[in-house]
Structure formats: C-alpha cells, structure tokens
User: Fold this.
Amino acid sequence: MKCPKCGVLDDKVVDSRLSRDGVSIRRRRECLGCAYRFTTYEGIESQDVRVIKSDGRYQPFDRQKLLNGMMRACEKRPVSKEQIEAAALEIVNEMEREHDNEIPARAIGEAVMRKLRQLDEVAYVRFASVYRRFEDIGEFEQEIKSMRATRVR
Assistant:
C-alpha cells in the first residue's frame, strides 16, 4: 500500500478489524519509511450496478448520490449522520438482495421514503415532495393526511 504522506510502498499492518457495516475490513497501517499511520478498508468488489430511470435511461448506481439525497432531506433535523449512513447502507443492501445488476429508480425512491419515514417525518415529507414532484400545497396536505391516517391505525 502506498503511503499517502511520503509515497513509500512498504508498510506494516498494525491493527485489523471488521468495520461497523460488517462488509469490509478496516486496517490501520504504519509506513516503514516515515512511520505515518493511516487507515485502509478492504471489501468485496461489487458488480457494476445500473439504475433504470423512469424514462428508460440507464445510469450507474451511485451510493453517494443516495446518501446526499437523504442528508439533504434530513438537514437541520434531529437525525444524526450515523443514522442516515446506517439507513443508506440498509437500502443499498436491500437493493442488492432484491435486484440483480439493474435496479429500478422507483424501488430506490420508495425504499428511501420508507427509511426516512421511520427516521423523521419532516425529512420524509421533504424527500417525498421532491421525489413525487409536488406541485402545490394541496399535495403536501394530502400526504400529511395520509400519514396521520396510517399513524392512527
């Protein structure tokens, strides 16, 4: 592994453990050239997964885009970054289990809305308003009424 500080290719592994998500190994390394310590992650290389957009176009699946959308919905809400990252990881794992190399965008959007509704109802409505392209306040009211009705059940 190339040292990020001095570029030397010689290092030793100081510590190895399973990462929080359980799908990769976290390794602490020490450069034998400059003694700089750094962290690397080793994981299974995933296949090229594509998203099928509603208009039929294909786009590479981007985990960061999923996470950014969820972060934006949860902005200034009492939801921690760790909660959002865990929810995003659950969504990614669910999509990989249920779909092969092609995932419909609709499946991702619906999964995000389910997770956000569990995390924070305001974040859920924010995301739903963009995802479902709300045109006016009436659509917000309708969604909130629907949420109240399902909460009562």
